[in-house]
Structures are given as structure tokens and as C-alpha cells.
Amino acid sequence: MSGLLNKLPIKLSNKLPSKISDNAKPAVEKPNSTLKPINNQFTKLLSITKYLPAGARSNILSKAFGKVVPYVGTTGIYYETVEPNQVVVSLNNTKAVQNHIGSVHAVAITLLAETATGFILGLNLPTDRVLLIKSYSVNFYRPIKKGQMAAIASLSDAQRLDILNTPKGEMVIPCVIQDRESDNDRDPIVVEMTWAWIPKAELEARRQGKASEKSLDADAESKKEAEQNEQ
Known about the structure:
The protein is an alpha+beta fold. The chain is built from six helices and seven strands, in the order αααββαββαβββα. It has helices spanning 41-49, 54-68, 70-75, 106-123, 157-165, 200-230; strands spanning 78-83, 86-91, 129-140, 149-154, 169-173, 175-179, 189-199. The strands form two sheets. It has a four-stranded antiparallel beta sheet with strand order 1-2-4-6. β1 (78-83) and β2 (86-91) form a beta hairpin. It is globular, with a radius of gyration of 21 Å. The termini are far apart.
């Protein structure tokens, strides 16, 4: 499991890294599912923690996943829901993530969406494949309030099966952004996150190929220098 379980905190903390806003809007309806989760490092961790109280479970998952991707962990992103059909992550409006007008910075919101969509794909990806962000667009349609932001990524069973049965592919992962302190019905932000996945063996072959090319270039350069010295 690539050491993921070893990243679990030894003691449970009563202090969560973030909490759901009291004025939080209801999450996007979770798709109905009849599929069993696939077996990978993420779903194993979910299975181990599934009997814990919701708050403690979210706390553990937030800490563990924050260590898997250290940069994401430094922002304070909190994993409220982590399931194969839906991932909900949120970010409190703290000084560290604010922009010049006191709301959550655009880059932090983009990271929130990237985290939600990336993790839901990761939950549904067999262990012999690796995910890569391919492209994204983020459109801001109204000013953001100064409160908590959330990103909700969802997949249907049909999409999950498509991911499972396609060794190499790409998909736009549906994601909704919530401005939880606002009573405005208009979506504040519309994002489109396109993720790709390829077999790990192919990625490794590409890396080795580039390494071989560099080695050949270095050998050619050394040979050229030797010929010049002989002259």
C-alpha cells in the first residue's frame, strides 16, 4: 500500500483541522451505487476507518492524505466525504489562503477542485495505473464570500466502470464548487478538470526512455570532446 497506512496518526485528535460551516449548503446529491469498491491503497484505508465516528474518520483521512501529497496538506484541506461515488473536500477561509479582498484565493480554490477530482479518480483506479492531470479550466462568475469553500466531485457507476475497464484513458471529472457562506443561488465558480490515466509500466518505460536518450546525448558529447582534444 505504498506506506499509506503507516501515515495514520498514532493518536486520534479531538481537534479537527477544519470543520463544516454552520451555514453549509447541502452537498450535491450522491449518486446511487451498486458497485463494490475496487481494491487499492485508498479503498483499503477507507475500509479500515469506516467504523470510526464521522468526525474522527475525516480527521484521520485528512491527515493521511495530506501526507500523501505534502503540498495539499499544507493548505488545510479537509476531507469531509471520501467514497468511490463522491468526494467532498473543504477549505476554511484563513489568512494563509486569502487573496487581497479577504476571500479564498483563486489558486486555493483551484487546488480544492483538483484535490476532489483527483482523489475520486484515485479511489476508482486499479493499482497498476497512475493518474495525471491533463487540463483544467476555472471560471469565476460572481464574487466569493469570506467563508468556507467546498468542492464536490461525483462519479456515476457507469463512469466508474469506464475507468475500471479502460487501461489508458481520460475523463472530465464532474465537480461543483460551493460558496458556503453565500445565499446566492448562482454558482460562484464553474470548473472543468480533465484527468488522464495510463499503466504504470508505460510511465516507467517513458522515464527510462528519456534517461536512455540523456545517456546517449552525454556519450555523444564526451566522444565529441575527446575527438577535439585529439586534434
